[in-house]
Design a protein that fits this description.
The chain has 9 helices and 12 strands. By secondary structure, it is an alpha/beta fold. The N and C termini lie far apart (about 45 Å).
Length: about 300
């Protein structure tokens, strides 16, 4: 019987200590999978520090930051070229249970393009960060993700889902070759929702594997959920995503909902003293609009 080969791909950007911790958690799995760590142009000695402290894996240092999508694509291309069946994209601030990969592989199938574990907060292991999600018919928004709900027996049931998040994805590489890799124009955020739609449009299922568990240390790489960097890329990528896929929903409703959401976000940031984050968020919205307009024209 042919062995299923999985390459675990972990991105690092200026967080070598967190990445080392993540790698050691993955290496504790039995049997330990093959691991590729990609240093995404950190330029701060991250690659050298990881080389000095880690063994039994490959570390690839990129000359510049390609973003989450671009960095993952480097690893996905390598996995495909080396004949792996699956790639496991794993955030460096997420820590798998020892049997997580086994649980994901037990439910793997040719018609499943992506699968995800149930993701829990590392700081509150009984609290859900993500447990799959449905697409709102008109707004295309993610719904019913379970975020901030207590993990309970209802959430222990695996199911097909509309959207999966890139925090941890088991990628069917044969399917990915058919539909294409992550779109690196997103750089960071919403590339996973875009990929989810593309997989479903090609006829592949997305699967939430409820007994596979992952513990997430939220938003380490961007400095927090309301950091200027986080808000810039969230704004930029959201506009690109919704303009690209608006035809799947109801355009006037999408426009009004997103406008209201943007106004609410800016006001919240200003009222909480985060003026720089509000400014970068608006900048991201504008640049995303310009990028989406060029894409539409082409």
């Amino acid at each position: 019987m042919t062995q299923t080969r999985v390459l675990v791909i972990i991105l690092n950007w200026k967080q070598p200590e967190t990445t080392i911790e993540c790698v050691r958690t993955v290496q504790a799995m039995q049997p330990a999978p093959e691991i590729l760590v990609i240093d995404n142009g950190s330029g701060d000695g991250s690659a050298e520090k990881m080389q000095a402290e880690l063994t039994g894996l490959t570390i690839l240092a990129l000359p510049k930051n390609l973003g989450f999508a671009g960095g993952c694509n480097v690893g996905l291309k390598q996995a495909i070229e080396q004949g792996f069946n699956y790639a496991l994209l794993l955030n460096n601030d997420a820590f798998p249970a020892p049997d997580m990969l086994d649980c994901l592989l037990r439910e793997a199938a040719e018609d499943i393009g992506l699968s995800s574990p149930k993701i829990l907060y590392e700081s509150a292991p009984d609290l859900i960060w993500f447990a799959g999600g449905t697409q709102h018919r008109w707004l295309l928004e993610l719904r019913n993700s379970g975020q901030n709900e207590k993990d309970d027996p209802v959430r222990h049931i695996s199911r097909d889902t509309d959207y999966l998040w890139g925090t941890c994805l088991l990628v069917n590489l044969a399917a990915a070759q058919q539909i294409g890799l992550l779109d690196d124009r997103f750089f960071m955020y919403y590339e996973d929702l875009d990929w989810s739609i593309r997989f479903r449009q090609a006829g592949y299922r997305l699967r939430l594997v409820a007994d596979a568990r992952l513990y997430h240390r939220v938003a380490v790489s961007t400095g927090g959920m309301d950091s200027p960097l986080h808000r810039y890329y969230l704004g930029r990528s959201s506009v690109l995503f919704f303009r690209r896929h608006a035809h799947l929903g109801f355009l006037p409703a999408i426009f009004l909902y997103r406008l209201g959401s943007a106004v609410k976000m800016v006001l919240r940031l200003l009222l909480t003293g985060r003026q720089e984050s509000a400014t970068t968020y608006l900048q991201g919205l504008w640049e995303g609009w310009q990028l989406a307009g060029v894409e539409t024209e082409s």
